[in-house]
Amino acid sequence: MHLKGEDKYSHTVTPPGNMHIMSNILCFAFFDESELTQNVICIDSMSIYVQDFQEVKYVSKFVIHGGNKLHGEIRIGGAKNAVLPILAATILSGKESILRDCPNLKDVHTMIEILRSVGCKISFQDSVIVVDSSTLYSHEIPESLVREMRSSIFLMGPMLGRCGKIKISYPGGCEIGPRPIDLHIKALKALGVQITEAHGFLECEVQKLKGCEIHLDYPSVGATENAMLAAAMAEGTTRIINAAKEPEIVDLQNFMLKMGAKIYGAGTSEIVIEGVKELKRAEYKIMPDRIVTGTMLAAGAITGGYIVVTNAIPSHVQPVVSKLKECGCLILEKGNTLTLKAPERVKAVDMIKTLPYPGFPTDMQAQFMALMTVAKGTSFFTETIFENRYKHVDELVRMGAKIKIDGRVAVVKGVPKLTGAKVCAKDLRGGAALVIAGLAAEGETTVEDIIHIERGYEQFDKMLEQLGAHIYRIQ
Ligand SMILES: CC(=O)N[C@H]1[C@@H](OP(=O)(O)OP(=O)(O)OC[C@H]2O[C@@H](n3ccc(=O)[nH]c3=O)[C@H](O)[C@@H]2O)O[C@H](CO)[C@@H](O)[C@@H]1O
Ligand SMILES: C=C(OP(=O)(O)O)C(=O)O
């Protein structure tokens, strides 16, 4: 075989033959000159093998021809940030859980792999995930999977609630900056968990979780969720004070209520959980993704389009909707539908500051910035949640955007037109922002490394295509 290029990446594959390992495997792909998909050498801790891997998607990109106004109707699916903690929560009951409207995303598959690795039986078909956690047999979470996704730390609370121990590695930092887990650890310690930290691993153990008052120094979404999950089966009452108020926290509470947990207050800054001895089988429909909703609205707005977004929860996207109205879009809310009619060119809004819910979501900062690059006037962004969430800026600048960064502030001077360019998705929302920019750019835009985008958007290209965008995907 003539080697043209070499690529190294992590991918979840089903090993050939009778091997029953289904884990995160390191793959070295050797590209043949004539064909991009040839052989892959896969290495994991237990085996090395060569696989003819015609179906593997090595390098995926989106190619966008800008200029089309988006028009039509699009349905929003279940939220990534709701389904991930809820999947972790299924461990608690030791019974069956049926989850509907689950998005088919890379992160969801990683969470499924994690649950399988500790013994759960899972099926995922037509947006329905069925988890049977009665067969749980391990408390050790494979490091390779933990490193793939920060949300793996959601396993801490449920594993401690269910079997009193967990061994898990640090999830590590990520593209958007360092993401410590000190608040998670503090909350779990308050519930009585002994935690030993060594060589990048956390070994946590508790005889019996004890209800307590947890004062979060910051309303961290993940730490609030982990504390809720750990407290569900603790002895006595737990109060989480300065809890995060994001809608995904309410969704988690609603799922826990279905399982028979005694919990109230989610959506406010104080959540109260009265521990119960046992939880039961539950069926639940995941809430619609508010960030995908906001992203589609931003995409409609940048193209001067007229779109109808269905299966949305308008109250969840108010911070984004009010900014879109400020920049001249007409938005009509009716039941679970949002209709957006955008002007030919939006006006700049002077200040966008990311804040915990109900403030403007950090997960919408990049997409809104893409919109502001072509607005009339100058807008100022302040990113207060994550330290390093401006990686899309250099890429937008390649497309002709005028943006200057000073620490946590980005100043965006709107230009009449962007021009298509070859750009690279550095993280999930930043990647989505580049696609949005491409929709309005003159000529062709290629967005590389869309693997990041696919962590959070199911068939992003198809959704936009349905609204009339010229976008296609190249493997
Ligand atoms: C899967 C999921 O739901 N992810 C969302 C969740 O992430 P995540 O739960 O990680 O976000 P947090 O609210 O915990 O993080 C917010 C800030 O608190 C800091 N922090 C957090 C925990 C901790 O122990 N110590 C600490 O310092 C973080 O570094 C960050 O600066 O909320 C974020 C903020 O809305 C969103 O951008 C993510 O999309
Ligand atoms: C940052 C995000 O997710 P995660 O916390 O899973 O990295 C996001 O959804 O924008």
Question: What's the quick description here?
Answer:
This protein has 475 residues and is an alpha+beta fold. It contains 13 helices and 27 strands.
Key phrases:
single chain; 475 residues; alpha+beta; UDP-n-acetylglucosamine1-carboxyvinyl-transferase, Chain; 27 strands; elongated; binds uridine-diphosphate-N-acetylglucosamine; binds phosphoenolpyruvate; cell division; UDP-N-acetylglucosamine 1-carboxyvinyltransferase activity; Enolpyruvate_Tfrase_sf
Question: How would you summarize the topology of this molecule?
Answer:
Elements: E1 5-12, E2 24-31, E3 39-43, E4 48-52, E5 61-65, E6 71-75, H1 80-93, E7 96-100, H2 106-117, E8 121-125, E9 128-132, H3 143-148, H4 156-163, E10 165-169, H5 182-190, E11 194-198, E12 201-205, E13 213-215, H6 221-231, E14 237-241, H7 247-258, E15 262-264, E16 270-274, E17 282-285, H8 290-302, E18 306-310, H9 318-326, E19 330-334, E20 337-341, E21 351-353, H10 365-372, E22 378-382, H11 392-398, E23 402-406, E24 409-413, E25 422-424, H12 428-440, E26 444-448, H13 460-466, E27 470-474
Parallel strand pairs: 6-18, 7-17, 13-14, 21-22, 25-26
Antiparallel strand pairs: 1-2, 2-3, 3-4, 5-26, 5-27, 7-9, 8-9, 10-12, 11-12, 14-16, 15-16, 18-20, 19-20, 22-24, 23-24
Bound molecules: uridine-diphosphate-N-acetylglucosamine and phosphoenolpyruvate.
